[in-house]
Design goal:
heterodimer, A: 120 residues, 4 helices, disordered N terminus, B: 439 residues, 2 domains, 22 helices, 70% helix, elongated
Chain lengths: 120, 439
Amino acid sequence: MTHILLYTDKLSEGYVILFTGLVIVFSGLLLLTLFFKFGLPFMLYIYKIITKGPDKKVAEISSKVNEEFTGEVAAAISMAIYMYLDVKHDNENAILTIKQARKLYSPWSSKIYGAYNKRL
Amino acid sequence: MKKIILIFGVLSLLVFIRPVLGFNTNSTNSEVSARSYEDDITVAEGFVSEAFNGIKQFYQYTGFANAESGNIIMILIGIIFIYLGIKFDYEPLLLIPIGTGVILGNIPFVAGNQTGIYEAGSVLNYLYFGVVKGIYPPLIFLGIGAMTDFSSLIANPKLMLLGAAAQIGVFATFLGALYLGFNLPEAGAIGIIGGADGPTAIFLSSKLANGINVLADGTTVKNLIGPIAIAAYSYMALVPVIQPPIMKLLTTKKERLIRMKPPRAVSQKEKMIFPIVALLLTTFISPSALPLLGMLFFGNLLKESGRTERLADTARTKLIDIVTILLGVTVGASTQADIFITKDSMLIFALGAISFVIATMGGLLFAKFMNLFLKGDDKLNPLIGAAGVSAVPDSARVVHTEGLKADPQNYLLMHAMAPNVAGVIGSAIAAGIILSFLG
C-alpha cells in the first residue's frame, strides 16, 4: 500500500494538491486561451480554404425554388401570426389570484339583511 | 334570533364535549335502571380514557411535543432566507426554495414514520437521492450551458485566466480546512465552496464527504453535503454584500475607471466550435469533472448549433426550473437540526466566507498582474477579475454596478461575463482535480 505513506502527513499532501491543482487549473484554462487565440482562427482559415469560394449572396438565391410559396400564403401566415400575438383575446391568463374587492360591503350578500328579512 | 342560535350552538357544543371533559359520571340519566346505569358508566369511562389517550397520543405526534431549540433556530433561519430573497432580491430563485426546505426539514416529527429526509423510504429521502448521488448538478449545468453565451470569452480568450485565478480560493480553503482538522476528502469538499458554484459544490461533496466513503485509516467521512451546499448557496446569494468592499480595497479609483474596448463580433462558427473544443480539452485534462463539464458544453452546443432550439429551450427553462426546485427544497430540508447544527457546520460557514474573500482577491489581483503586461486599450479593468468567482451571473452584475459607480458611462457587464463563465469552467476543472486526487 503505497498511498498510506502519503496519508501520514495530511498537510504536506494538502500542499501538493494545492500546487498541482492550481497549476493544472491554470494550464487547462491557458490551453483553452491559446487555442482560441491562435488555434481557432487557423482552423477557420483552413475551413475557408477547403470550402473555397465566398458564401452565397442574397441575390444569388434562386426564387424559382419556392414557386408554391405565393404572396397569398405569406399573407395568410403573417395574418395568423398577427392574430396570435396581438388580436386574439380568448387566451386568458392562467394565473388565478383572488383579489380583495374594493367594495367590502354589499347588501346582496349580507347576513344581517337575511336575518332581518326572516324575522319580518 | 341570532342570540338564540348562538345559545343553542354553545349548548350543543357542551353536550358534545361533555364526555371528553368527564362530566358524564353524575349525569342526568339517574332514573334509568341500575344495571344499564352501570353499563353506561363503564362505557363512558372507557370512552373518556380512550379519548384522553387518543388526544395524548396525538399530542405526542405533534410538532409542539417534539420541538427542540435547534428546530426553532433552523426554522427562523429558513424564514430569514425567504425574507432575504423577497426583500432584497438576493438570488430569490435559490433562497426561497432553500428557505422553504429549511422549514420543511425542521418541522419536528416522531422518527420512524418515514417522514424525515434522512429516513429511508420517505418521499423527501427519494427526492434527496438526486443530491446524494450527484444527479441534479449535471442537469443544472445542462441548463446553464444552454443559457450561457460564451461569445465574450471567445472574443477575448485571455480573460479565461481570470477564471483560473479565482480558483485559488478553492485551494486556499482546502488548506484552511486541513489546518482545522478535517480529513483530506472533507477538506476537498469544503474547499470547493470557494468555487462559488452551488451545483459543483454539491457534486463534489456528494462524492467526497457523503458519510459513506471509508478512508485508508478506517474512519468514515462525515456527511457534509448539507452544510456545504447551504454555505455555497447562501454566500452566492450574498455576493452583492461580500464583494464590493474587497473590490474597493484592492483597486484604485483610477483602475476602476479603465475602459475596455468592446469585444469583437464572434461568428456563429466560432460559437459552435467552442463547446466541442472546450469539452474535449477540459475533460481530457480533468476527466473526473466529466458529468459537469460534459453537460455544460452539451447544453451550450444545443444552444449554438441553431438546429436544436427546442431542446435548448427546454434545458434552459423548464428543465433547470424543475431541478432547481427539487434541489433547493431538498438541500434546504437536509439541514435537519440534529444533523446540521454541529461545530463542523459552523467551521464550514466560516471557511466558506473566507474562501469567497480569497477567491475575489485572487481574481482582482491577477487582473492587476495581467495589466502589467498589457498596453493601451488592451488593459483590463481589474474589477472584472472579481467576476472570476463563478456565481453566474450575480458576480458579473456586481462588477457592472461597481463599475457604474466609478464611471456612470462604463458598462462592464459584457466584459465581466467572460471571467464569470470561465470561473464556472475553472471551478469544475478544480472539482475534477480534487476528485481525482482524493476520490
